[in-house]
Design goal:
388 residues; alpha/beta; five-stranded parallel beta sheet; elongated; Toll_tir_struct_dom_sf
Length: 388
C-alpha cells in the first residue's frame, strides 16, 4: 500500500501520526511529590520524535507522534486518546512490570489492536513496536519482552538494554551511545512501517479503563458534595468532564481501581474504602462540616470554588473548618490549573490515609478499625462514628 492508498471517506478527524506512545503512569511516592513523575517518558518521546522527524519524508502530511502528555487541560481524555489511536500508524508501548496491570495502558493497546483485525498476523505485528522500558523479573517474563529485544539485534546494546531497560539508558550518560543506537533503530522502523505499509485511517475502539486483573486492592471512592447536579462541572466549557470523573480518570491512569458514587452511597462505602470528597464551596462551611460528619478519618476532602462564584465563605475558610475537624490534607482550589495539579496528589493522599488508618481484615471475622494512639474525646469532630 502506498501513502495515497490510506485515504478513507470514513476516516476519523485529525492529522495522522507516525506513532502513538503508550505507557503506565507512575504513582508518586507521596502526596507532596511533583505530579510530573514521568519526566523520562516525556524525554524519550521528544527524542524519538526528533529522530523520526530527521528521517521522515511525510512530515508535511502528518504529525510525528502523540502521547497523553500532549492532551489539553480539561479535555475528555478517553475520547482524545481514542481519536489519536485512530490516526496513528505505529503503536509504541513502553513495557514495564506495571504496564500489563494498568487499565489505561492495556486499554490503549486493545484500542489500537482493534484497527488491526483485518490484517494478516505478520503485517499487523509490524504496526506494534514494543520497547522494554523497565526490565521484568525473571518470573514475570512475557513474550512481549522477547519481541522488544528482537528489534535491537545482538551485541552490547542488546545486553545493556535487556539488563537495564531503555529508561536507564535514557537517564544515564554512561549509556548514551547505546541509547542513541536503539533510538535510531526504533525511529527507522517507525518510518518504514508508516510510509511503506500505512494503516488506512479507521475508528479505533473506545479506550476503556476496566480493571485488568483483581489486584486485591480496595477501590477508591470518589464523591461530590454539592447543591448542584452530581455531575458537577464548576469550570464550564474549560473542562469536558465532571470533576468527579476527572479525579476517577486520574486514579485509573495511576493503576488504581476507582468508582464514582453519589454522596449518600459514599457514606455507606467509605468505612471500607479510600475516599475522596469534592466539596462545592457554595455549600458553606457549617453545612460542609455537618455533611461530612460521620465519614471516617481517612476520607480526603478537596474544596472547589466554582468559576466566577463568590460566596459568603471562601474555600480557604471551608478547608480550615474541615481541617479543624481532623480531616487530612484539606486543600482549597479556585481555578482549573490548581484543580488538575491537585488531582494526582488527592488520589495518592486518599490511598495513603486509608492504608494508614483504614480497617484491618482479621483472618476469621469482619473488618475492625485500626488501633489508634489518639485519645478519644469531644475534639474528635471529624472522625467517623465507627471510630467513636
Amino acid at each position: 500500500m502506498t501513502w495515497s492508498d490510506a485515504s478513507s471517506s470514513g476516516a476519523p478527524p485529525g492529522r495522522q501520526t507516525y506513532f502513538f506512545l503508550s505507557y503506565a503512569h507512575s504513582v508518586p511516592l507521596s502526596a507532596s511529590a511533583r505530579p510530573d513523575t514521568d519526566f523520562w517518558v516525556n524525554r524519550f518521546f521528544q527524542d524519538l520524535g526528533a529522530a523520526v522527524r530527521r528521517g521522515a519524508r511525510r512530515t508535511g502530511e502528518l504529525d510525528v507522534g502523540f502521547f497523553d502528555g500532549l492532551v489539553s487541560p480539561g479535555a475528555d481524555l478517553k475520547q482524545t486518546l481514542t481519536d489519536a489511536l485512530s490516526v496513528a500508524h505505529v503503536f509504541v508501548p513502553l513495557y514495564s512490570p506495571k504496564y500489563f496491570s494498568n487499565a489505561w495502558a492495556v486499554g490503549e493497546r486493545d484500542s489500537f489492536r482493534s484497527r488491526l483485525t483485518r490484517l494478516a498476523p505478520g503485517r499487523a505485528a509490524r504496526h506494534i513496536l514494543p520497547v522494554l522500558w523497565l526490565p521484568l523479573s525473571p518470573w514475570e517474563e512475557r513474550p512481549e519482552t522477547a519481541q522488544a529485544l528482537a528489534l535491537v539485534g545482538d551485541g552490547v546494546e542488546r545486553a545493556d538494554y535487556a539488563e537495564n531497560g531503555l529508561r536507564a539508558l535514557c537517564k544515564l550518560s554512561a549509556y548514551r551511545r547505546q541509547y542513541v543506537s536503539i533510538l535510531s533503530v526504533l525511529a527507522e522502523r517507525i518510518i518504514t512501517v508508516a510510509e511503506s505499509e500505512p494503516l488506512a485511517p479507521s475508528r479505533a475502539a473506545t479506550v476503556t479503563s476496566n480493571p485488568v486483573t483483581d489486584s486485591g486492592e480496595t477501590a477508591l471512592v470518589v464523591t461530590t458534595l454539592t447543591p448542584h447536579d452530581p455531575r458537577w462541572r464548576p469550570y464550564g466549557d474549560q473542562h469536558e468532564l465532571a470533576v468527579a470523573d476527572y479525579v476517577a480518570a486520574t486514579a485509573e491512569r495511576l493503576g488504581l481501581s476507582t468508582r464514582v458514587v453519589a454522596f449518600a452511597d459514599a457514606r455507606a462505602q467509605a468505612p471500607q474504602c479510600p475516599t475522596v470528597v469534592l466539596v462545592d464551596a457554595a455549600i458553606g462551611a457549617e453545612a460542609a462540616r455537618d455533611a461530612v460528619d460521620g465519614l471516617p478519618r481517612w476520607a480526603v476532602p478537596l474544596v472547589i470554588a466554582a468559576e466566577g462564584e463568590r460566596g459568603e465563605t471562601t474555600p480557604e475558610a471551608i478547608a480550615g473548618t474541615l481541617q479543624d475537624a481532623r480531616f487530612p490534607q484539606v486543600l482549597p482550589v479556585r481555578d482549573i490549573a490548581e484543580f488538575e495539579r491537585c488531582a494526582p496528589q488527592l488520589v495518592i493522599e486518599a490511598r495513603k490515609q486509608f492504608l494508614r488508618h483504614g480497617p484491618v481484615d482479621p483472618p476469621d471475622g469482619p473488618a475492625v478499625p485500626r488501633p489508634s494512639l489518639r485519645p478519644a474525646g469531644a475534639s474528635d469532630i471529624g472522625r467517623g462514628k465507627e471510630d467513636r
